[in-house]
Amino acid sequence: MDLSNYRKNYESTKYLIEKNIPKIPIDLFHSWFQEEKQMSSNDKEVNAMSISTIGKDGAPETRIVLLKQYSEQGFIFYTNYLSAKGLAIRNNPMTCISFYFTNTDRQILIKGKTFKLNIKQSDRYFNERPREHQIGSWASKQSKIISSKEYLLDKYKKWKMFFKTCRIIKRPFDWGGYIVKPYKMEFWQGQPYRLHDRLVYYLELETDKKWNLFRLSP
Fold first, then answer.
1. How far is it, in rounded angstroms, from Cα 196 to Cα 3?
2. E strands of 55-133, at which residues?
3. 71: which strand partners?
4. Catalytic annotation present for 129
5. pLDDT digits 0-9 by tens, 165-211
6. pTM, to two decimals
7. Domain spanning 18-129+174-215 has what CATH number?
8. DSSP 25-69
9. Catalytic residue among 131, 194, 198, 215
10. Where in the chain are the domains?
11. What is the pLDDT of residues 4-32, one digit of tens each?
12. Number of C-beta neighbours around residue 41 at 10 A
């Protein structure tokens, strides 16, 4: 199939001008995230982000996860520690996450080092999840080969029965949170004639405090 004519004409007049944007990238991220959320329907997961890791084969692997919290310290998501991404992070904690905001024609690319959250933070979030999702975390050994869909549904039913008399379901030992602490954050705004705005923040690793800002050619 020839996709040569698949293209979008960007018409945004919201230019990214250095003097008009925050000195720290998390403030710009927050502003963009809120704008996208306001323009999205309630059933759209604006917090969906791609995360790329490097597996044992040396090749990158990208999948979609949900951002659950963000701050100046970093970006938090939850998964199975023994999943493909969890094992990849254990072997190489350098990851890349990215967002594509369709309503505002924006992309955000974030590179950083990934760390496990402490037990209390993972427990707190797990306890806030819907009960069905908690049971699903016990039933699914993420990324492992299984025989069929029926096998997975049967596992869920068995764990649901197991927890039937339990008021509180404890977090599985192999499930929890990670935080990506960024050292690079790039912001892309679609513009007419493909003259897109690209601004990138780099963290001075020596001080771990100051962000330097540069403009990139589109």
1. 22
2. 60-66, 69-71, 74-80, 94-101, 106-116
3. 74
4. no
5. 999 999 999 999 999 999 999 999 999 889 999 999 999 877 777 99
6. 0.93
7. 2.30.110.10
8. HHHHHHHHHHHHHHHS-TTS-TTEEEEEEE-TTS-EEEEEEE--E
9. 194
10. 18-129+174-215
11. 888 888 877 778 899 999 999 999 999 99
12. 7
